[in-house]
Task: inverse folding
């Protein structure tokens, strides 16, 4: 394969002491403490996680020309209960990410992290980071119980994101969910990794849609990140069915079935190792789904991404595959598509 490949969901690996060394001393006690990385298997041994120069070389090994970048350690910070501490942590992360991506802005597109306890502060940080070259935004997928997505608390952020054409990402493992409970063991390891994680994704997306957010802000785009896509046709079919079934007896805040938001291009999703989703793409989701590598996490197919793409998408016509591996993500983030890289 000689086509240009862009990953819609990859990750940086923040220095473990990024926050402990940069946070004001008064806020350090409320922030997470991350141990120094250990040598051995896992994503810590990839230098590119924290070194953007090394990352460009590692991308070439995988045949990937550009990447959209999300946090790693920073995902846990969405569960911080103290608003001031979370805002400070994310500002530190965003500044670090700006410097990281500046090494090659055509190939490294950073997504800033926003604390949304104080929505005015969130809007200001969104605007600041966009002026500095970052794109879109990531917020918690599982909100604080006092701030559900069905409330109007987020309206100023939705409006700002719409005005900036900044897609808002809901990434797995973010917010006030099971990830705040330590020591998950036994069969619960699978139960949470699949069932609980999927439940967080479904509820976050559903609440944003059913509350009328996407009607009130018709140019707002929401990106479901790292939840795969094989489930999506089924759930949207079921949501549509019950919307139509109860629409005459229940006063819904929306006037169209949920799948309409897919058709409008307001709901997008990433996938990286989803054979079921690959088969569905023959008839569904070709305009809003985006391949990703999840690099440098253990789930990533690196350095065999091209083989996985061929396995899951090789049956599709070339013009469809081009949308999924490059054109959709470039259109979503207004990226300049770089030249292909040589596979090392």
Result:
């Amino acid at each position: 394969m000689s086509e240009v490949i862009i990953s819609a969901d990859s990750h940086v690996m923040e220095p473990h002491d990024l926050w402990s060394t940069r946070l004001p001393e008064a806020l350090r006690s409320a922030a997470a403490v991350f141990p120094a990385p250990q040598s051995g298997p896992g994503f810590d041994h990839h230098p590119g996680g924290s070194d953007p120069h090394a990352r460009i070389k590692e991308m070439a090994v995988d045949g990937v020309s550009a990447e959209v970048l999300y946090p790693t350690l920073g995902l846990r910070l969405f569960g911080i209960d103290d608003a001031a501490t979370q805002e400070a942590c994310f500002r530190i992360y965003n500044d670090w990410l700006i410097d990281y991506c500046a090494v090659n802005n055509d190939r490294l597109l950073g997504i800033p992290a926003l604390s949304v306890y104080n929505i005015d502060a969130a809007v200001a940080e969104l605007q600041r980071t966009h002026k500095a070259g970052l794109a879109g935004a990531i917020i918690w997928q599982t909100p604080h119980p006092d701030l559900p997505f069905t409330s109007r608390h987020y309206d100023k952020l939705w409006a700002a994101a719409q005005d900036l054409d900044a897609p808002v990402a809901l990434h797995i493992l973010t917010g006030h969910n099971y990830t705040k409970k330590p020591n998950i063991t036994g069969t619960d390891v699978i139960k949470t990794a699949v069932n609980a994680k999927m439940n967080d994704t479904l509820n976050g997306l559903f609440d944003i849609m059913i509350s009328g957010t996407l009607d009130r802000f018709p140019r707002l785009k929401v990106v479901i990140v790292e939840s795969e896509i094989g489930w999506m046709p089924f759930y949207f079919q079921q949501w549509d069915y019950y919307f139509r079934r109860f629409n005459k007896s229940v006063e819904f805040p929306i006037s169209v079935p949920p799948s309409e938001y897919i058709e409008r291009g307001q709901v997008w999703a990433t996938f990286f190792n989803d054979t079921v989703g690959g088969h569905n793409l023959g008839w569904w989701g070709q305009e809003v789904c985006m391949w990703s590598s999840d690099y440098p996490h253990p789930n990533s197919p690196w350095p065999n991404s091209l083989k996985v793409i061929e396995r899951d998408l090789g049956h599709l016509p070339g013009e469809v595959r081009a949308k999924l591996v490059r054109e959709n993500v470039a259109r979503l983030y207004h990226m300049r598509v770089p030249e292909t890289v040589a596979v090392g």
The chain has twelve helices and eight strands. The longest helix spans residues 188-210. Residues 6-333 form a domain with the TIM Barrel fold (CATH 3.20.20.140). Strands lie at 6-11, 66-70, 108-110, 137-139, 168-171, 222-225, 267-271, 289-291.
